[in-house]
Design goal:
Elements lengths: L8 E2 L9 H12 L16 H18 L5 E6 L2 H13 L7 E5 L2 H11 L5 E6 L23 E4 L1 E2 L4 E2 L11 E4 L16 E5 L10 E6 L16 H6 L9 H17 L3 H20 L6 E2 L10 E5 L3 H13 L2 E2 L10 E4 L6 H18 L1
Parallel strand pairs: 1-13, 3-4, 3-5, 5-8, 8-9
Antiparallel strand pairs: 2-10, 6-7, 9-10, 11-12, 12-14
Bound molecules: pyridoxal-5'-phosphate.
Length: 368
């Protein structure tokens, strides 16, 4: 691949970019964690250093999101996909009660498929398939069962580029959310949720660790036949050291949370930046006279994943190739949908969005 070395912006949707500072601090930590005499790759999980890394990472997430004291924060493995399985296993206690799912795209569909493996009483309370997953429901378009063990939704559908603007209002019913692609991109009222889960590799670090934020009262009813490693309780009890945690991956999350706190100045700033980045691209799409065609309907557009098409797959291929030649990578749409996807995770600077905007304008001029 030829790239313009002066600029290299990674818009990949699966695994996000990381700030240069975080990468160089991680490199340094591979040699030696500052003031420790030890590489981050060989930290023993029973050491005080490991405890300190976990504690500071947890504290930073608590500070960034203002997490109430009655929630535990866990660092687990198995990706967001394992949570699709662990959630019904742990929280669906009485199988006579249903579990409710909103199916708004590729990832929430994956989540519900796993719930069906745990029981039959799974309700799809809204499904966006008929509209080809171009929109999200308004509250009057779905009805939550008062007896539901929980309701599950995905706050940002990474593949289709659809994002809920606020947590669902669920009354007494426990709200469970896959926040993998928009975690720490804006302030969120954690007290509205029973459980939030998120893998690290998009907004808060590198692949290998999954963060779960769980309200402690939900631990009380977990069935005793859940296999130990899949049961949230031992992880809470042992403060994420029930077994060997992925310490280096957690260390990168620590660096990212420090960066979000100290360099970005917190989530209000991150949210404002997210808006500016995405709007720069939506502006090009909306003023392109149909040259670029957005996938999501306007009200539900994601500020994190901007998904669009050009007039033909051939032109899309050309767009992706030309972008690579000027140092813009990762624009391929998800394999299930095709088209173009530009992802603006926390680490993407505004200059990256403006650079892509200019490329899009130039490409349109040349190919119109
Ligand atoms: C919203 C969302 N949920 C779940 C997943 C699956 O995550 P993992 O690969 O960590 O299992 C993804 C993957 O990109 C995602 O975007």
């Amino acid at each position: 691949m030829t790239t313009n070395k002066k600029h290299l912006y990674n818009f990949s949707g699966g695994v996000g970019a990381l700030p240069e500072k975080v990468i160089s601090d991680a490199q340094q930590a591979i040699k030696e964690i500052p003031d420790s005499n030890i590489s981050a790759l060989v930290v023993n999980h029973r050491s005080q250093l490991c405890r300190d890394i976990l504690d500071e990472t947890e504290q930073n997430i608590r500070t960034l999101l203002n997490v109430p004291d009655n929630y535990s924060i866990l660092f687990l493995q198995g990706g967001a996909s394992l949570q699709f399985t662990m959630i019904p296993m742990n929280l669906w206690v009485d199988k006579k009660c249903p579990v409710d799912y909103i199916v708004s795209g590729y990832w929430s569909k994956k989540a519900i498929e796993e719930a069906f493996k745990d029981g039959e009483n799974v309700k799809t309370i809204w499904n966006g398939k008929a509209q080809n997953f171009t929109k999200l429901p308004t509250p009057n378009e779905y009805k939550i069962d008062d007896n539901a063990a929980y309701i599950h939704y995905c706050s940002n559908e990474t593949v289709e580029g659809l994002q809920f603007t606020a947590p669902l209002e669920t009354g007494e019913v426990t709200l469970v959310c896959d926040m993998s692609s928009d975690f720490l991109t804006r302030p969120v009222d954690v007290s509205k949720f029973g459980l939030i889960y998120v893998h690290a590799q998009k907004n808060i670090g590198a692949a290998g660790v999954t963060v779960v934020i769980i309200r402690n009262d939900l631990l009380d009813n977990i069935p005793d036949n859940v296999p130990t490693i899949l049961d949230y309780r031992p992880h809470v009890k042992m403060k994420s050291i029930y077994n060997t945690p992925p310490i280096f991956a957690i260390y990168v999350v620590l660096l990212m949370t420090r960066w979000l706190l100290n360099d970005m100045g917190g989530l209000l700033n991150v949210a404002a930046l997210s808006k500016n980045k995405a709007e720069a691209i939506y502006d090009v799409i909306d003023n392109s006279n149909g040259f670029y065609r957005g996938h999501a309907q306007k009200e539900n557009r994601s500020l994190i994943n901007v998904v669009f098409n050009l007039s033909s797959p051939e032109l899309e291929k050309e767009f992706i190739e030309e972008a690579k030649n000027v140092g813009i990578i990762g624009l391929e749409g998800h394999r299930s949908l095709g088209g173009i996807r530009a992802s603006f995770y926390t680490s993407m600077p505004l200059e990256g969005a403006l650079y892509l905007k200019k490329f899009m304008l130039d490409f349109q001029k040349k190919n119109n």
